Amino acid sequence: MPKKPTTTRDAMIEGAFQLIREKGHESLTARNLAAFLGCSTQPIMYQFPNLDTLRDLAYQRADAFHSEYILAGGDFLEIGMRYIRFAEEEPHLFRFLFQSGRFSGLRLEDLIKAPEAADLLTVVSAEEGLTMENAALYFEPLAALVHGYASLIANNGMKYDPDAIRQSLIMIEAGMEKGKEQ
Known about the structure:
There is one protein chain. The longest helix is centred in the C-terminal third of the chain and has 23 residues, at 132-154. The chain has 2 domains: 1-62, Arc Repressor Mutant, subunit A (Orthogonal Bundle); 72-182. The chain is 73% helix and 0% strand. The protein has helices at 9-23, 30-37, 41-47, 51-71, 76-89, 91-98, 108-112, 118-128, 132-154, 162-181. By secondary structure, it is mainly α. The mean pLDDT is 88. The radius of gyration is 19 Å and the shape is elongated.
């Protein structure tokens, strides 16, 4: 009877997610993951002969973690603040999700209209009394601003200053409200 595997497929996916979270997506190799999990590379290579599959599954895990994190914010402003705070608290995951080449060739509009953004657009639509299509138009400049702050922070290009960032977001949103009225 063959020996029962001690490192499961789910444990490998979770391990890949945690390894990326701690050391960055560049660190995900079979050898590094085996050391992280305390096993040999054999079970990893058996389950994932092509590490791209494991990387994709770790990405899905990271994306779900990110979505849960930011959507816990409640209102639209707080969701934006949580997106930026995520970059401060989880820079390796932020870079894996948004700066590892997965969005090459896409426009911001494509990302906003992607199914993964539906929950955010629902919040915007409800708070602003907009159709989903108009919510996407309203959301686009704010998404660019929030992502810019987050990218600078995740890459150590800017110090995280929540009060200054919050004021900036409030001013931009107020300006957009004024423009919407005209």
